[in-house]
Specification:
nine-stranded mixed sheet; disordered N terminus; 574 residues; alpha/beta; 14 helices; Glucose Oxidase, domain 1; single chain
Length: 574
Amino acid sequence: MATDSSATLTTRIRLSFLLVLAWAAAFNPHGSYGGDSDQPVYRDLSLLIAPEYPCTWPTWPQFVISRATQVGPLSPYNTDTLMLDGNTGTQLDVPPHSVTPPDSGLPNAGAFGRSFTDVIPPWQFGGEACVIDCRDLIASAPAGQSSLIKKERVVAWEKAHRPLGPGDVVLFRSEFSDRFYRPLPEGRRYAADPVEGKAPAWPDPDPECMEYLASRHVMTLGTDSTSMGPLPDLAEPTHFAGLKRGMIWTESATNLGSLPDTGAFYCILSPKHFGAPFAESRAVAVVGDPLARRLIDAARKKNVVDLSVVLSEDLPISWTGPGVGNHRQPYFRVRFGFNPNTKTPFETHVLDSQAGTHLVPPAFALPAKGSPPVSYSPEVREWLAEYEATYGPRGVSDMTTEKVPVALTCGPARAIDVRYLLGTSDKTKWPASPEISLSEIRKYESNHGVLNLGDIVLFQSGWSDQFCRPLPEGKACMDDPLNGKSEGWPSLGPDAIVYLAKKGIRCVATDAPTLGGVDPKRALMCYWALGSHEMVGVEFLTNLGRMPEGAHFLFAAVKIRDCHGGPGRAIALW
């Protein structure tokens, strides 16, 4: 059996010299994609979520990540349990944060009172970034107070650039998060000290500024400060002034200085929590034409489709495992506190890091670099010997979620229809999944053109469209196939993965619960092959049939340190 030493690492990646050069040119340490300086690049505008950072609102439950399983005798996978609320890290606010349903009878009722994170149309997530410089306001207020971004500053920006309008995303750049988002206790300056009145608070627009932006039909905003609400007493009036008009916005973005004043495409991507008024998110941007302009135009035309399943307790979006006691953390909501404006409790979420639409990083099925040799169970040791005899040494990886560049999970969408594989497995061998072989991929290439470096390869089985239904009907999605009561979803074989890696593909995706399928041996070989070739997966998509050819795929997982999964949102634009 092979050891996990770094000496074997170079032998496992079967790529040509030219492909390695292309890979190195395409990606840089800042998560940007594009070989030449004049090519479009991706920018990650999101804060790192980790327990020692001030990533949650200072009076709310703290963020928790715990390792549920790790590669070893009890499991061949690294899995995590998360507890986090929608105000964690870089985050999305939607109208019900402050607006109640129109029939609620409350003073702040409005037409957008039911526009939760699972309802907001996906075209509103993105548009042309219009960056307004507010750096002069960062420390100009007394302790416990915010300097106000006034309407006049927005008007001055328009005179210098162009009038604002529909499809624009106004971003207020103060560099507050760039300067003050630090590990605790230094990080208290980011939120706790301003709230406690010990330090100046973040700059933010006042209600009149919000009303003006609404009059310009701007529907999406962002700020690189802790909240869109100025302290001490204008937080809720500012929120309500914008949210009542149907606006959404990003709070706690960062690195806005990497964007030009205009011309970049900006997008906020969050897990699709059912009935949530806000959500932990990932903010990304594309700088450089023609891609940025193409995405901006698509968002303005509302040519956007949401490819993400809803996260809800009554849906089969958490791994059940076969039999009894082999499940991962079920998804559920925990209520706490009380929102005096909406007369409802706040919520935090407890979930497996691979619940719903999620990322699979290389470290999911691989031991860390430099770790001792793994003591797998006897059965898994046999599988590993068979795998390595065919594909070479299984690798090692430290690439957890926060180390996966956003550029890796975004790119031209290449959807391969594998629905015809359903019903082709041998019933006597269930639990089993039809395997997506190399021949299916070559058949696609002969009909649609070769796959290229940077393409996102998506396998369309229609599984989630058909089976992701409220329980108990939803048992047909995972429970029944895993227990041999029905056929499993199409899975990706190691031979196909090796072929895709040689083509320069670095991200594969599926609209089924997993890429690996229901057979534990074949599933593990799938994830060994992906991880050993430094490929990532996106699992549990939906609506792939609504995505036309030539679409551009965007997915980003929440930026959680040391996470072996990561809930996120996938969309496509054309």
